[in-house]
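STRUCTURE:
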């Protein structure tokens, strides 16, 4: 009778250990997610690139793009919607996205930190009380471009402007005429290192957990015999 009781206690203890390990694993992953989200701040911005847009009559605007540790390629705390335009005349620049309003028009747009190619869609609009034209200049700091770490950084206008060599681009705009540009960042060899590394790490963690669970179940079954 005592032997049966001891055997039953061992079985119950094994089940309890299995439950505790499983529950601890769930809590651990949940805690990691909470910590990552709570640490998201502007201190995590790795690099940023400011575009200063200016035209005649001293009208100015700017937009900012970049990458941050805890940013995503969707909506995140780093993204800043563009406010409504001021009174006429004005010059307005923004990044166009497929996010819900008001995040479909962004003043600042940060993406996830990776080596993947990225594209930002930039729109510039000049509105005046007359129907004349104006010269618009898009300017940037080459040092900020180099800080991105990408091999190729282009402004498509649709002409291709190498932003690592040139620090501005000028064009003529008519009144109420939106101009669309693309800022494209590329590496010469698209390797998706960041995504692959994350996938490998996740696979190793899951594999380790599975092995531990299998060992515990095997021990449990052996003790039942």
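SEQUENCE:
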């Amino acid at each position: 009778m005592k032997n049966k009781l001891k055997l039953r206690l061992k079985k119950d203890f094994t089940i309890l250990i299995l439950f505790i390990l499983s529950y601890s694993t769930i809590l651990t992953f949940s805690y990691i997610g909470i910590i990552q989200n709570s640490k998201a701040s502007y201190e995590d911005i790795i690099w940023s690139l400011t575009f200063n847009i200016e035209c005649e009559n001293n009208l100015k605007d700017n937009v900012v793009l970049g990458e941050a540790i805890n940013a995503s390629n969707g909506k995140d705390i780093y993204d800043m919607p563009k406010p409504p335009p001021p009174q006429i005349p004005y010059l307005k620049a923004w990044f166009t996205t497929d996010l819900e309003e008001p995040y479909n028009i962004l003043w600042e747009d940060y993406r996830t930190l990776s080596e993947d190619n990225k594209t930002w869609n930039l729109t510039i609009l000049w509105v005046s009380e007359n129907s004349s034209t104006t010269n618009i200049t898009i300017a940037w700091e080459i040092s900020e471009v180099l800080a991105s770490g990408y091999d190729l950084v282009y402004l498509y206008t649709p002409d291709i402007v190498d932003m690592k060599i040139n620090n501005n681009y000028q064009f003529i705009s008519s009144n109420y005429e939106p101009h669309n540009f693309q800022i494209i960042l590329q590496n010469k060899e698209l390797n998706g290192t960041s995504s692959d590394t994350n996938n490998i790490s996740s696979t190793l963690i899951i594999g380790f957990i599975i092995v531990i669970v299998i060992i515990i179940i095997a021990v449990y079954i052996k003790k039942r015999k």
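REMARK: The chain is about 35% helix and 35% strand.
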